Amino acid sequence: MTSVASGENPRPEGVPAVDFDLRSQNGLAESNAAWAELRKHGPVAWSDDNGGAWIVSGYNAVTEGFRNWRALQSGRAVRTIPGPGGSPDLNPLNAVPTRTTGLLIPEELDPPLWKPYRQVFNELLSPKKVEQALYPRVRYWVTKCLDDVIESGQCDIVETLTSGVPAAVILEWLGFPEEDWHRLSAAFHNMASYIPGTPNADHYMSELDWAFDRIEAEVAAVRENPRDDVTSYLSNVEVNGERTSYEFAKGMLNLAVSGGVDTTTSVASSAIVHLSRHPELRQRLIDEPELIDSAIEEFLRVYPPARTHGRTVVEDTELAGFKLRKNDRVILSEVSANYDETAFPDADKFIVDRFPNRHLAFGMGNHRCPGSHIGRAMFKEMLTQVLERMPDFKVNEEELEEYPNCAALGGWSKAPITFTPGKRRL
Amino acid sequence: MKIIVNAELCQGHARCLAEGPDIYVLDDVGYNSTSIDNVPPHLHEQARRGALACPEQAITIVED
Hints:
The complex is a heterodimer.
Chain A lengths: L4 E2 L10 E2 L9 H12 L4 E4 L5 E4 L2 H9 L4 E2 L3 E3 L9 E2 L23 H11 L2 H24 L3 E3 H6 L1 H11 L6 H9 L11 H24 L5 H7 L1 E2 L2 E2 L2 H16 L1 H15 L1 H9 L4 H11 L5 E6 L3 E3 L2 E3 L4 E5 H5 L33 H18 L4 E2 L5 E2 L9 E3 L1 E3 L8
Parallel strand pairs in A: 1-6, 2-3, 4-14
Antiparallel strand pairs in A: 3-4, 5-11, 6-7, 8-18, 9-10, 11-14, 12-13, 15-18, 16-17
Chain B lengths: L1 E4 L9 H5 L24 H10 L5 E4 L2
Antiparallel strand pairs in B: 1-2
């Protein structure tokens, strides 16, 4: 992997220079408003914040950026000027560079090495695999998680369902023992909380450290003594004729865990809060269940879990007519693209049967989320059972809690609800 | 009607199959590399919707 120096280039000439500190975006409304304001300057701007970066907010420019894998590298880069959190590393996840996170494979790879590792994930999470092997477990866990609270008439729907289900489905599939699931999923669920300056940042940072260490311990164990599970498969898989390296084995497990446990949570929580606030839409989905698939796409557009990704320019290139220079840092915004009026008429409105809906919730280009099929399956089953089993749920607005910062990942930390009690199914 | 798939642009979103389950064909890992020469008339609408749904705009419909 290249070690690219970044942050050395001065502000480019002839480009709108804006004040756009992603770290200050606290709360969904504030963040969305900041992106809307930015789009007024055009699809591409430059911000001196956090060491200087191109900020790409227009739909066409963002998709162009994701497709230009040759010049816009996903591989880890090293800043010459450390970010505000002291970290020298840049990777696709830290639009807000704060700390060094565990390596993510194949997210941090570029072609050609990217290809065989990507194929591993494509095979594991293909639409066929999801339908045949994974869906029964999705159904089981949704049913069970709701069974646990259905008679009580109240719960935190995030803890109970939207966080619990992806954690159970993915960590069971990987083969992690059940006693680890809660702590592992909480570590990633609270990842937005470790940003320096937020309350208890140190605690959340150490929980994240624990999570990466726990994953590493599992990888080491199964490379010694393989079991019959996906963690063992990933940790020992042959790529280009050789067993994968220890570093890359860890990287694949890091991605499998972190990519899965909080992203689906985010959009499912957002959908449930949205439906509590729009009971007429909720009733429509109950009356016309054939609308659920397109509602899911619209929830994904309006509440994309992964809101931005970073890239490092490795060769001079053009983007939307602007000249990007080697070593420049680029922030591509999926969330801003999703709200771009030039791509989505009435972008601020939730339109349940919007079509076409070519949103970027799962990204674009070669790093399109390999978990998109299992993510949609989990989201759909959660939504379907909530509408069937607790159709009158009401969110307690006073106790709703947002992530402290949603520059990279948006969502609800807590969403307490009440509902008419129902019956267990299992 | 023809469906022309640019396999190099396909990134396996599988939105074509979601809109056109009776006409689009994906490989084992959910990517599309199958162009189709003669789309039966009763599947024309599925074909159009599948092409429109593709986020990578990898599908072209050639109308008769």
